[in-house]
Hints:
By secondary structure, the chain is an alpha/beta fold. It has one domain. It contains 9 helices and 9 strands. It has helices at residues 5-16, 19-27, 41-51, 74-87, 103-111, 121-125, 153-156, 169-182, 207-211, and strands spanning 37-39, 63-67, 95-99, 114-115, 136-140, 143-147, 159-160, 187-188, 202-203. The strands form 3 sheets. The protein has a 5-stranded mixed sheet. The protein has a two-stranded antiparallel sheet with strand order 4-9. It has a two-stranded parallel sheet with strand order 7-8. The longest helix has 14 residues, at 74-87.
Amino acid sequence: MAPSDDVSTRLSDALRANETLWECLHRVPALNLPAWYLGAGCVAQTIWNLAHGKAPNADILDYDLVYYDRDLSDERESGVAREARALVADLHIELDVTNEARVHSWYPQQFGYCIEPYQSTEDAIGTWPTTASAIGVRPSGPRLAVCAPFGTDDLFNLVVRPNRVQITPAIYDAKVTRWVARWPSLVALSWEEGVGIPGLRHLDGCRRVMLRP
């Protein structure tokens, strides 16, 4: 879902208040990464900070830089991560760099179950844990290009709604517990009030994952 011009402007104005995010956002193009976005927690939590009267960059543990590269080697992704972190070293942030094209290869080891391979960065963002945090941004001329598959109403209304297609209730509950402790005005909805068919992106076995391109 592409936000309206008014929503894009509102989002740009808010994110500009986080000078660290804004500077990071405008350095990343130098990396020439395919289909990249800066997003997830650093975007949502900037909005939450402003709504709570906190410093725009308060309590943001990491900044997620995602892209989609069909070179699935660990060496390539590690090299991109080193280059990206060096680019923003003076900003003193934790930059989490992920090639979404290869997430399915390590997901079972980290989370205990297999998932369908992502077909694009936008496809990956559509599986992120909540509707508010399923968002990515990048510069596009004088404006921001925004990927927000669930829109931005939940984000600006401080609603935390689970996106159930890939995560589990336990993953969602853990995130909600951490977030509400830091941003108490958040309205955390139950698992049953979420969007998406639970487990839609899961695979029964890992062999199919390894065989797919």
